[in-house]
Design goal:
By secondary structure, this protein is α+β, with helices and mostly antiparallel strands. It is about 30% helix and about 25% strand. The protein has 11 helices and 19 strands.
Length: about 450
């Protein structure tokens, strides 16, 4: 890599469980452009990482992105043929196993063995100490003892990704890195930006921030019929950023795909999950988007410029996951005339039954379709302004420190089939242990990212 010509940075996934047919058009567009480029796969939320560790505990061969083969397998030949590096945090809790799967996919496709780099150092559970942690969120003090620890992962930056690409990696597998780093790493490797060139690092971080959620910048999670219409959402195209050496770039999508790229879609994604537009903290730079300019540059093309940056913060964010409590959920439906009254009665009966049995659990009762999203935990289901509904689903959710009382509470909803109001049906339930994730800060000097080869 290396050069001053524009670089096409594409996105093939915005979360774990994203559409597996999305990467194909992105890779095809980059290859057809004749420009240097790369594709990133962002599949790692905080809860996803915790669940990856749980999966690895159960089976040491698991813990990576479950859809890795479906996401990357179909585009692997084209990426290798067109020299389009693949960068993804699909390693989750087990980057080594993810790399091994990618090698098998290449072998099964009759391809030459790809050069795969594995970024390590984010998993600090084996050597982290309580003294290393600075409380970051309001609940983090609850986990100061690290009792019940499942995982502890630090958000790494783009440097090891760039290092791997400069050393010839065709695929870079990471665990927990900051989402924008998946784009910034290839951009730094291509353009040779300095690690203290704050404005360009900020621009590359903004590229990554706009791409990291996949189709959210191309009309996904944006549509509101009659207000914000998005064409052909069933075939929505995933984003591509055409980036110049000075950091200015154009957001677009593959030709012939659905969705849209407008100033509004780009604006929404710029502000997505940004706590302070003047100081968006990442491991590589503090990004300031308050002076960013957006200009329509043609159909499904928006030009972005004006990102500014400051020196990176002294600490890195760490997500630390603990074993949580038990949660039980149970639902039952009531339909037809007087359905709302019957569902409300069912909720009242459940509340009384839990009290009668001494099940003093944290609880919530909802009437889905009438009072759930806009209700609160006090359960004001008897409000006079609830309009009649012909179909209502009553939901109970309870949580407790041990499983037995949670199972007992859920069983009470099952009993409604014969002991409750008329016409109940479609009962479903589950009980599971929750994972509690908290945020801390870790001094940079306690973290040592490394690159090794599969």
């Amino acid at each position: 890599m290396g050069g001053s010509e524009p670089f096409w940075m594409g996105c093939g996934a915005g979360f774990s469980g994203d559409r597996v047919d999305a990467p194909g058009p992105v890779v095809a567009a980059i290859a057809a452009s004749g420009r240097p480029g790369a594709i990133m796969f962002e599949t790692l939320a905080e809860r996803t990482l915790a669940l990856g560790h749980v999966a690895r505990w159960a089976d040491p061969a698991l813990g990576y992105e479950p859809l890795l083969a479906e996401l990357v397998g179909p585009v692997l030949p084209a990426c290798l043929a067109a020299c389009i590096p693949i960068v993804g945090n699909f390693g989750n809790a087990n980057p080594q196993a993810a790399a091994a799967l990618l090698l098998r996919l290449a072998e099964e496709a009759g391809l030459a063995r790809p050069r795969i780099a594995i970024v390590e150092g984010d998993d600090v559970a084996g050597h982290i100490e309580v003294a290393d942690l600075e409380v970051s969120d309001t609940d983090a003090s609850l986990g100061r003892s690290l009792e019940g620890l499942i995982a502890a992962n630090v958000y790494l930056g783009a440097q090891p990704i760039a290092q791997a690409l400069l050393q010839g990696a065709q695929i870079v597998v990471t665990g927990r890195v900051a989402d924008p780093a998946l784009a910034l790493g290839p951009l730094v490797a291509h353009f040779g930006w300095g690690w203290d060139d704050w404005d360009r690092l900020a621009a590359g971080t903004l590229v990554g921030h706009l791409l990291e959620c996949g189709s959210q910048v191309t009309g996904g999670y944006f549509a509101d019929p009659g207000f914000k219409d998005v064409p052909n959402m069933a075939g929505i195209g995933f984003p591509i950023a055409e980036v110049d050496a000075d950091g200015a770039f154009t957001i677009t999508k593959p030709p012939g795909t659905g969705g849209c790229v407008t100033r509004r879609t780009v604006t929404e994604q710029i502000l997505y999950e940004v706590h302070d537009p003047a100081a968006y903290l990442t491991p590589d730079v503090v990004l300031d988007v308050t002076g960013v300019r957006l200009e329509a540059a043609g159909m499904d093309r928006v030009r972005v410029s004006g990102a500014r940056g400051r020196a990176a913060p002294p600490s890195l964010k760490a997500t630390v996951s603990f074993e949580g409590d038990w949660i039980g959920e149970a639902e039952i439906s009531y339909a037809g005339p007087n359905a709302l009254a019957r569902a409300r009665l069912a909720a009242q009966v459940i509340g009384q039954r839990l009290d009668r049995r001494g099940l003093m659990l944290r609880r919530r009762l909802d009437l889905i379709g009438t009072a759930s999203v806009f209700d609160d935990d006090t359960g004001q289901l008897a409000a006079d302004d609830l309009a009649p509904r012909s179909e209502v689903r009553m939901r109970l959710a309870v949580s407790g420190t041990t499983r037995g009382p949670v199972d007992a509470a859920v069983q009470e909803v099952l009993a409604l089939l014969c002991c409750g109001p008329a016409g109940g049906g479609g009962m479903r339930s589950q009980v599971r242990r929750r994972v509690r994730t908290l945020s801390y800060l870790v001094p940079r000097n306690r973290v040592a990212p490394t690159v090794r080869w599969a």
